[in-house]
């Protein structure tokens, strides 16, 4: 196989149709079909299943898609690195962020990159942590910031910060400033679904003290969790920054969990299975600086540097 065949194959899969791929590539459809047949003959297996609605990759085709993306990305990065070896870092760096983290990091990171590295373009994608972890393993993003530990042994994980989780209540009900985690026994809770990383952490901590959470409602949206708590459906456990505005407005009230509290870490992740271009290294360093700046300025409410949980931040 050569690079052209890989590019053709990826376009066919992305378009889901030989006809549409031929139009995008400005290649005659019979020639594109011949490229596909030659690849299948060379590999000794079928790569695509054909139907009236188009084409879909077989199991072998899915594997080739993943590897082809990685090969073509590495080739593009190598070319960029060689061309720009003596110049400022340049290229596209793709970052995967959960929506809550993106709301804090994206703008200051973009502004800092524009000032420091004008030849680097940031491509920021938001999604749930599970999707982002898969994208990182597949090479669809270069860098991620996630709350979960990596499942892929080729992913490097660096703890950026630790943030305190707090109990949120409907505002104006005179809730305590601090309570034991056991104090949530029997309290109706509005929480993310069981597959959500935050929910898994909460369930594990409650089960460790013999408590099964009383679920009033499950919903995978911090915005809707806050609305439901403010409307009196139950309490919740969220990071403070996610509800800072509502707390200041009096719509929600906060109780800290008694020491040592309940904490989760945000991790910077990238793959060791692919070469790390200069542009990516520069953005990783810049991201560390941005996070440190947010912590120093107190703009990431309830968060602090790793290992400082003995000195809890002021709420």
Proportion in helices: 40-55%
Tell me the β content.
15-25%
Tally of alpha and pi helices: 10
- Structural class, judged by helices and strands? alpha/beta
N-end to C-end Cα span: 59 Å
Largest sheet: 9 strands, mixed
Quickly give the CATH architecture of the largest domain. Answer: 3-Layer(aba) Sandwich
Radius of gyration over alpha carbons?
Answer: 24 Å
Text of the CATH class of the largest domain = Alpha Beta
Order of helices and strands: HHHEEHEHEHEEEEHEHEHEEHE
Number of strands: 13
Low-confidence stretches: none
Number of domains: 3
Assigned CATH superfamily of the largest domain? Periplasmic binding protein-like II
List keywords for this structure.
alpha/beta, D-Maltodextrin-Binding Protein, domain 2, 3 domains, nine-stranded mixed β-sheet, two-stranded antiparallel ribbon, 43% helix, globular
Descriptive overview:
The protein has 315 residues and is α/β, with parallel strands linked by helices. It has 3 domains: 3-81, Arc Repressor Mutant, subunit A (Orthogonal Bundle); 89-160 and 264-304, 3-Layer(aba) Sandwich (D-Maltodextrin-Binding Protein, domain 2), CATH 3.40.190.10; 162-263, D-Maltodextrin-Binding Protein, domain 2, CATH 3.40.190. The chain is built from 10 helices and 13 strands. Helix 5 links the parallel strand 3 (91-97) and strand 4 (120-126).
